[in-house]
User: Fold these one by one.
Assistant:
Number 1:
Amino acid sequence: MDSLILSREKITSDLLPQRFNRAGIIWTGTLIIICIIGAYAYYRQLTRGLVVTNMRDYVSWGIYISNFVFFVAISLVGSLITAVLRLANVHWSTPLTRIAEIIAVSAIVFASIIIIVDMGRPERFLNLFIHGRLQSPIIWDVVVIGTYFFISLLLLYFPLLPDLKILINNKDRSPKWLNRVYRFMGSFWKGTKEQFKISDKAITILCITIIPVAFAIHTVTSWLFATTYRPGWDSTNFGAYFISGAFLVGAGAVVVAMYIFRKAYHLEKYITDFHFEKMGRIVVMLALLYLYFNINEYLIPAFKMKKPEESHLTNLFAGEFAPLFWFAILVGMIIPIGIMLFRKGRRPLPMFIAGVMVVVGAWFKRYLIVTPTLLHPFLPMDNVPESFRHYFPSWEEWAIAMGSLAGALLVITFFARIFPIIPIHETIVDDEKNV
Amino acid sequence: MKKMCKIKRVLFSLCLLVVSHAGVAQADSTKPELSVTIHYFVVNNSFQYLLAETKTKVDKKWQPLKKQSLQLYLDSNKQENLISKVMTDSEGKAKAVIPSGLKSIWDASATHKFIVVTEGTSKEEETTTESEITKAKLLIDTSNTDDTRTVNVQVMKFAGGNWEPVKDVDVKIGVKRLGGDLKIGDEETYTTDSLGQVSGEFKLDSLPGDAKGNLTLIAKVEDNDQLGNLSIDKTVPWGAVNTSTGVTDFGHRSLWAARGKSPVWLLIMAYSIIAAVWGVIFYLVLRIVRISKLGKKEAQIKEAV
């Protein structure tokens, strides 16, 4: 029993939020600077109009919408790691659930922000509610993103309640204002049997609810494209294609976050090689699944090579976008599969490298889904300025997109500073069970 | 000493050059370049109007000059010859109809001069622009022989008290459509012969017309230096009868209908899903409230003990 009490204290001590060290301050400062540059670029866009971007008549969805699709995709990981694995009674994922959930929440917040940034006139967002048509997939997307945000927030909050009690009990470790935040959020949690019963039931309900909502969010996002008749988007397979890609990038992001948190907070005892091994298997399976859908999406249209799709496909395979296309396929899928297929590749460092490749490849993949199609309309581009025929984002677009990515990382960073990034209570319970 | 004088002269010349260039630059910056053009239009040989267009150079680019006051005169810029005082719109354009009060001046001559005077402002200098035209008209007729439909147009000008044909004038012949004029054949324009005539074969078979199958033919002379802009139209029963009742599906509930006309099945499906999911969210929020109440109760019990 003594060892158990010691173990509890050790777990609590190890997993309580820690102050930023020097590297943490540099990291946070860098992110804040990127966010400020992004905010300045957005100020320029607001005051001068969307003309500061390089989006024109044909490419009206550029890097912003690519970023939006990326954020929506990455947010799906909350439902995979938390809901699917929890419902499947998989216990090894316990230390990863909160990492997955905070990635989901921050990504969905910035998905909403970036879509408003893309509008140019942000106040017109209200028109969606005043004049919105229920028949439009854009309305479905707004509804489902809002719903997913609240469910993800609840799924983050319920498992946090027992940890809030631990944080309140260890008030010496936190500044006063933070203790006030903890008390406001969870002073009512006493850890009674009945409270646990209600909380466990609520988490199970959330896990069941979030899966169809998560599928809906990315399916509806894919329908924004698939419901329009354009080369590259005119596919009945888009929902499944998007969901498989989303699970892959989300899992890749969790692997990257696992490695960084493990290193930064010395969590080697809690995020072990075993977790990397298990996550590696999941990522390989998801990468193979996404590769399968990619083959379907590109090989079959290429086999038929319908006239209107020809220029779009040849442009991807061997034209202007070919380097980016093959980069996304190789770096985003094939090389990570090659690394993680073998046991040695499923060690922390190779997994981290493969995870970064998956995430970077996935970002460019979203860019390739959005932009080349817009440059290949069915009607020929006649008598248009040369700038309409090509698209490369302006510095304002890059700054805003990078600012939004930095913003999402900043939310995760501050969350890890304020709350335990690994659930303390659940880890103790699992530990007790093992004992 | 000679060398010094030479240097002084060169320096003096350079100074003069710099000063004169600065003077020119200053003049440029205070009074930007202004361009005024005037176009004369005659529609169906009866309705005449003028279109004045103003532009100014900003940052070496021509931009429309908005809200510029213009005075348009016929033949002479006297008060009795004033056609109209107008103000340019956001595109730098202003229209004026030739008033009936100037009929006697108009009838007195075969050629006329239009004068545009721009009012001088702090930014712009007063300018005067002139454009001369000869009175002209278009005649349009059609023929139908051996299943070949032809449109005949004649261009006439007023000279020496008579209407005379005009040679070598480019005429466009088309059919009026919603988005512009559709050419009747392969030719973009037809050039008048010595009789001032052009003929174009009508090749648009089964072109949708109105409920009676009528189409509106149009012949145009555009921006002719001597005649201005002339146009004439004629209705012919050469189109396919449009059997459309004009009733669209947009009034019915459908996926492509307006807001408020969503299909009932979609409304039921969407609102059921939204209600179900948000019902769960609401229920879970109530569970948090329940947990909170239990916690407070537990605290009270502990305090009592």
Note: The radius of gyration of chain B is 36 Å.
Number 2:
Amino acid sequence: MASPVITIEGLRKSYGEKEAVRGIDLEVQAREIFAVLGPNGAGKTTTIEILEGYRERSAGRVEVLGVDPESPTRLWRERIGIVPQITTLQPYLTVRESLDLYAGYYAAPRSVSEVVGLVGLEGQEGMRAGKLSGGQQRRLDVGIALVGDPDLLFLDEPTTGFDPSARRQAWDMVAGLRDLGKTVVLTTHYMDEAQALADRVAIIRGGRIVALDTPQELGGRENLPTHITFRMSSGDPDPVVPGLGAFVRTDEPDGPRFVLESTDPVADLSRLTGWALAEGRELRELEVRRPSLEEIYLEVTGEGPA
Amino acid sequence: MNSLRLILHEFRFDQKVFWRNPSSVFFTALLPVIFLVIFATIFGGSEIETLGNLDTTTYYIPAIITLAVVSATFVSLAMNVTIAREAGLLKRVRGTPLPAWVFIAGLVGNAFVISLIMLAAITVIGAVIYGVAVPWSHLPAVIVTLLIGAASFCCLGLALCAAIPTREAASAITNLISLPLYFLSGVFIPESEIPDGVLTVAGVLPVRPFFQSFLSSWDPATTGPGIEWGHLAVVAAWGLFGLLAAIRWFRWTPRG
């Protein structure tokens, strides 16, 4: 296997007394889309800014594309694209001019027209950056980071403050980066964003990685029970289904709700529906649901009720 | 060679941004012309005894050029670079292969070109509308003054950025420094109306000696090449101070 694009060993960063990053170990492979997830103040941005060469670390070893980011070279900068957390555009330059300006900084830039297409700003080339919508500005931000044709792209909270449709568009764009063979490191607060985009997710809390896995397996998600939920009419007796364990009953105004935690949902569901048909009972609002990434996130970051 | 190409690239976009920004066009390019018309209308046609009966309109041409150059260099850089820094633009540029000094060189080059345009424009307006002779015989002195002055006030402007904490404070702090200096230095009010003690103090601050250097070139009584090395040395000393302060304290990242 080729050497990793990013290697972090025992990374620590203190601001005076406060330790923002408290021992992070991580490897990111080439062509991976890697999401760093965590609440505000977890150490996401500090970590990313150390990788980008903006901040010095207090301890540990860091290598990005084979270079220590504390001594960045011009050649190294050629290979890295950065989308900062806040949109930073020159409002008086047009889309095309903004891209031309940054393209001029690189030895072998990508063609500006191609970048316009990649970030979905066709037809807006002559529009001043200051007049674009928030979503379009963010896409121009990404375009500026792409115009140098970097191998590695950092996206710091790329969709914070977006409406749902702008987020969808941004996701399509990031997914398109995978086809270009880029390695992408993105930070986000949003679970669904990590789930939609990332090959692997690290959840950071209190300056440490508390979970690191594919979105499918994060937090042992594969092994957590599936919830089968339904509701019955108020007067009906509680369900007793042969072969199934006990239901957890919650009383609600429209009738009691029953939840079964199942590790074999296909078989259990078959038993439940077979029983209902045979007994003539109605399973209202029947739902089969795996624990969402959101629930895992709240659990591992300690922000949830669990 | 490659660096020169990059500086020109940067400069080209700095020019676009300057002329498209209504506030820089108004405050840097139009306001000095408006001031010239106002002062020439109100105070024109009289003579300044303490300056060998120099015509007041002639006096205001170098005065307003001083204002325009300080505005294009010191004031523009202090405000615009602070605003760009607080918006995260400087930090973003630092994340690209562009060398930091090239970025600064583009801005300084832009300030020089705007200064030169303003000097030419005010000189022409003075000659065409007010009949103030173009000081052709002192042209080398005018150019030397412009170069030393523009360079020094660019350095001071970049140094002041470091002292301005936020975007909101940029305009207030910059004007708080520049406006009193114009008044004390005889740029707005003829120097014959300003007490000697005030002029002495202003003489060791950067604006007054810069103005005196230009004034000498426009004054018909000046003989010889008219290069005021003494005054220019004071301006250059301030520039050097600004350069060292900027190197020591300039920030690329926003606060926090």
Note: Chain B touches chain A at residues 6, 9-10, 13, 16-17, 20-21, 87-89, 91-92, 94-99, 253 (CB under 8 Å).
